[in-house]
Amino acid sequence: MLKRLLLNTVVAHEDEAAPLAWATAYGFCILFSYYVLRAVRDEISAADRGNLQYLWTAVFVAMLVIVPLYSWAGSRWPRGVFVPLVNRFFIANLVLFYAALVLLPESARAWIDRVFYVWASVFALFVVTVFWGFMVDCFGNAQGRRLFGFIAVGSSLGAIAGSALTAALAQTLPPFSLLLVACLPLEAACACVRVLHRRFGGGADPARAENRPLEGSAWSGVATVFRSPYLMGIAGYILLMTYASTALYFMQADLIRAALADRAARTALFAQIDLWSNAFTIVLQIGLAARVIRWLGVGATLAALPVVTAAGFLWLGTAPQLAALIALQVAYRALRYGLAKPTREVLYTVLGREEKYKSKAFLDTAIYRGGDLASGWIFTGLKALGLSIGAIALAAAPLAALWALIALWLGRRQDKAANAQQSTQEQGVQA
């Protein structure tokens, strides 16, 4: 029945139904775990707003340490080992945080909150990056255009489930009680990885590339980024996206902190914003993502988010109110995860395996958080100069236009690489 449902609702071939279902379940588990923790992290940022830029500096430094360790693990073990290893590393961390919150005195809570904020920011990017790295390794370019939108549905359903659970329990249970709950879907994600790797990724055949450790060293994926104009273009897209995200995030923290004094009420509002964002996201992923990519192509689909963001910043610049910010934040997240995210992952399907895991990890974590760091200090500096939220929003609109141009260029480069890849495969079949 599930197979018939997938074939009737997704542009999938019959032999893709089973791996598509397991991949979607994997995404559900990862985002369920993260969104149980997300509102707790965001509440910390609102309560500790004056130190937010310092926390983001710590996140960036942590990324610089963790990326080469992750790359080293990829060079030491095959994906069937190191992908679950990453998830279980984070499970162990959650147990340790819970123990610290229960056993240490209340006077230590402020620093535990800050360390948890840094950890949760690292967790958010790494588990999602590892998930999508695994997806672009399992599915090819043509499959990615058709299937990634629906695979992202699992992520959105997990986010909705995690947000709903947190919104329901935030005001009745201590927030740190949810840390242990978040461990369960992470372990379930490991089971999904095992099935995908064994049944649809080459089984136990040692000759298959998927069953061998990645090539290169712990730093080779980083060096590749700076040698490739295509990967540098992706870096530029990510950096401009992070500025838009950071500006909205800081504006959200300022406006909600000013509007609501109660911490539990703020946590519940953050969870409600997440819930509505993911509800609209899933509508885009189910009904539009694959069709929009097919109709407009990768470049124009990637450009949709920055175009709407530019218009939203212009609107927020003239009406810097909490209601306008919430509306823009919901629209931004829905487009980012409903269209831009699955489309951006298609960019990686034309790359080699080392680039899919190592270079991608560097781009999606260190570059991403580096953009967050720079954007956080820029926003803080603009506020220190006396600029209002409206003025900062107006200044961000031209950057969003540049972001759209980079998206169109990446789409053209991806199309060219995909065509070359297809020609090579056809020549191999003929030979």
Distance, first to last CA = 40 Å
Shape: globular
Question: What assembly state would you assign to the polypeptide chains in this entry?
Answer: single chain
Please bin the fraction of helical residues.
over 70%
Q: What Rg is obtained from the alpha carbons, in whole angstroms? A: 21 Å
- Give the CATH architecture: Up-down Bundle
Instruction: Please trace the helix and strand order, writing H or E for each element.
Output: HHHHHHHHHHHHHH
The CATH topology is given as Growth Hormone, Chain: A
Mean pLDDT: 84
Segments where pLDDT lies below 50 for 5+ residues?
none
Number of helices: 14
Q: At the first level of CATH, what is the class?
A: Mainly Alpha
- For the record, the count of structural domains works out to 1
Q: Based on DSSP secondary structure assignment, what is the total number of beta strands?
A: 0
Strand percentage lies at under 5%
Task: Label the structural class.
Answer: mainly alpha
Q: Tell me about the biggest sheet?
A: none
